[in-house]
Structures are given as structure tokens and as C-alpha cells.
TrEMBL record:
GO biological process: methylation
Taxonomic placement: Bacteria, Bacillati, Actinomycetota, Actinomycetes, Propionibacteriales
One of the record's GO molecular function terms: methyltransferase activity
InterPro entries tied to this protein: 3_dmu_93_MTrfase, Glyas_Bleomycin-R_OHBP_Dase, PhnB-like
Protein name: Putative 3-demethylubiquinone-9 3-methyltransferase (Glyoxalase superfamily)
Species of origin: Nocardioides panaciterrulae
Gene3D superfamilies for this protein: 2,3-Dihydroxybiphenyl 1,2-Dioxygenase, domain 1
Location of the PhnB-like domain: 3-117
Keywords: Methyltransferase, Transferase, Ubiquinone
Pfam families: 3-dmu-9_3-mt
Length: 158
């Protein structure tokens, strides 16, 4: 059976990234590391490629050098959280050394974009009362890290 998994291009910090990500998510581990040999093209013994599992999902990565290294917001990973404590946990750990953005988005210290979203947001945005859904959306647009209580309060005032 075939499987699809993301492959991320790093300059030269793949192993550090794999260790960072697997330390944050449950059911995560590094499953393989390939190193350059004497045959090159990289420095013998340095990490060329790796595989890891995050929360049960397979990822691959390469240390491809600076030619194409660097991520943009055009690709991101979304983490749906069951409650505010999960939002806080993933936000605080992933943004460490990175930067906050708007509407639940952040960039981690490797420049990879993440969306940290409480499941409650989807419920509020899908509210059958359009005024409640719009109020929740407006509240979201004004936030960096999403706060469930504030989203609910905004919907309740509609």
C-alpha cells in the first residue's frame, strides 16, 4: 500500500528539527537518520536525510543546503486542539524561538508555519446563527494565539 508523507527541506539543521518536533508531540519518534559517506557529496558523517513520526504521522526531511531552504506560509501544518490547555501547550512549545502571527498561526524556530486551532473554533464558525458565527470570526481575526473563552464570549454577544 502506498503512503503519502511530507518531506521538508532544511539547510543543515534537520536532526535538530526532528529532535525538536518529536519532543513536543505525543506518539512521536525519530525512525531513521541517513548520513553522508566518504563518497559525498556532503561532509562524511553529517546528516543527509531523516524520517520521523509526529503524533503517529510519518515525515521525511533532507539537509539539502541553502539553495531551496526556507519555508513560506504556503505550506503549514494545522494542529486541532481539544481545549485551551492543548492550544496553550502547542503554541508555547512551537513558537519558542520563532514568531507569532495572526489568527492562530505561528512560525517555529525553523521557519515552518503552524496553525494551532481549538476544535471549538470550527463549531463556532459553523454556528447556524450567522451573527454568532460572524462574531466568532471577527474575534479570531483580532487574536494571535486563539483563546476559546474569548471566542465564545464574542459569539455570545451576537
Amino acid at each position: 500500500m502506498s503512503a503519502i508523507s511530507p518531506c521538508l527541506w532544511f539547510d543543515d539543521d534537520l536532526l535538530e528539527a526532528m529532535e525538536f518536533y518529536t519532543s513536543i508531540f505525543p506518539d512521536s519518534r525519530i525512525t531513521g537518520v541517513a548520513r553522508y559517506s566518504e563518497a559525498g557529496p556532503g561532509e562524511p558523517g553529517t546528516v543527509m536525510a531523516g524520517e520521523w513520526v509526529l503524533d503517529g504521522r510519518s515525515f521525511r526531511g533532507i539537509n539539502g543546503g541553502p539553495m531551496h531552504a526556507g519555508f513560506t506560509e504556503t505550506v503549514s501544518f494545522s494542529v486541532t486542539c481539544t481545549d485551551q490547555s492543548e492550544v496553550d501547550y502547542y503554541w508555547e512549545n512551537l513558537v519558542a524561538g520563532g514568531e507569532e502571527s495572526m489568527c492562530g498561526w505561528l512560525k517555529d524556530r525553523f521557519g515552518l508555519s503552524w496553525q494551532i486551532v481549538p476544535a471549538r473554533l470550527y463549531e463556532l464558525l459553523g454556528d447556524p446563527d450567522p451573527a454568532r458565527a460572524e462574531a466568532a470570526a471577527r474575534a479570531m481575526l483580532g487574536m494571535r494565539k486563539l483563546v476559546v473563552a474569548e471566542l465564545e464570549a464574542a459569539a455570545a454577544t451576537a
